[in-house]
Write a structure and sequence with these properties.
Length: 318
């Protein structure tokens, strides 16, 4: 099959990559539409050492399922973590922290920037007919955004700030807005400002951020400056949620976190079912974020497009 291929931080387009046949508890899935996210861009920069087919945001169609043929023809999205089901974390119900996990397009498992992928049936979630491919491709990042609501109790009286109005930051803001909290989002791009305000979400500039102005900050910039701004904004006794993944290090004043009793929360993957439900009911519509769709053979150009400042979601179609 034809795929994008990442090796030694160099992305290329390859033909005739070997297609893996599904095992008894697996399905062969044809990729219908895939999305390029910030993690995919950071992988090229060396965020995590990986050789193979990158990519993990997608909607696909099951074309083969040896043990459960009733899956054939179903449109699906898939959890990106492949877990063992036997380690301590899995047995305790914390499978996203499986000690033996592999991750689609990130760790020891080929991703979806190709024509097909083989995945365990247990990772698959059926997409309702009413949800278009263009919406369904956002299931994984929307689930990640909604994980914040699983980790932190957010009530309507809370003051909340999102720092970083990029691909994931916008989805975080859309999810948080459903709680009725006093939400503000730091934006730089006029287009992002309009997109959020069209969803009745208040936007501010970085110059409007004052010390200890909110109870909860979600940091989604992937930069040291963004973290510093988020740290400035959170009040004593407040909570700072980190959603960024990027290559590099940043300096943190740990003493101030202790003295001011700041709760630091790392936030990664989330449950797909609530995300699918919100897309199905129309409570969240991420499609205005789509900037362009490229055929897979033009994937290198698509990556370049996605890396431009201010660009939101770039899609790939095999």
């Amino acid at each position: 099959m034809n795929t994008l291929w990442l090796e030694n931080q160099k992305l290329s387009y390859r033909k005739n990559v070997t297609l893996t046949s599904p095992l008894a508890a697996e399905a062969l899935i044809k990729v219908r539409l895939a999305g390029i996210c910030t993690t995919d861009l950071e992988m090229v920069k060396g965020y995590y050492p990986f050789t193979g087919v990158p990519g993990h945001e997608f909607v696909g169609e099951v074309v083969d399922s040896p043990s459960m043929p009733e899956w054939i023809g179903k449109r699906i999205a898939a959890d990106i973590n492949l877990v063992c089901g036997k380690c301590e974390a899995c047995l305790q119900g914390r499978s996203t922290h499986c000690q033996n996990r592999t991750t689609i397009g990130i760790k020891e498992h080929d991703g979806i920037f190709g024509e097909y992928i083989t995945l365990p049936l247990s990772n698959l979630h059926i997409i309702p007919e009413s949800v278009s491919d263009e919406k369904a491709v956002f299931v994984e990042p929307l689930a990640a955004a909604m994980q914040i609501l699983e980790q932190v109790h957010i009530h309507p009286g809370m003051r909340v700030l999102v720092v970083g109005a990029g691909r994931l930051g916008i989805l975080c803001a859309m999810s948080l807005s459903l709680t009725g909290c006093d939400l503000k989002v730091v934006v730089r791009q006029p287009r992002t400002k309009k997109l959020l305000e069209d969803s009745f979400i208040t936007t501010i500039s970085s110059q409007d951020v004052t010390a200890e102005m909110v109870d909860l900050v979600v940091e989604v910039t992937g930069s040291a400056d963004g973290f510093a701004l988020a740290r400035k904004a959170v009040r004593g006794g407040g909570t700072l949620v980190l959603k960024s993944t990027f290559k590099g290090e940043t300096t943190v004043d740990l003493s101030s976190l202790v003295v001011e009793e700041i709760t630091l929360v790392g936030s990664r993957c989330g449950s797909f079912l609530p995300a699918i439900r919100l897309l199905e009911t129309g409570q969240i519509d991420p499609t205005p974020m789509i900037d362009a769709t490229y055929p897979m053979q033009n994937g290198l150009t698509a990556y370049e497009h996605a890396a431009r400042s201010g660009v939101l979601k770039v899609l790939l179609r095999p």
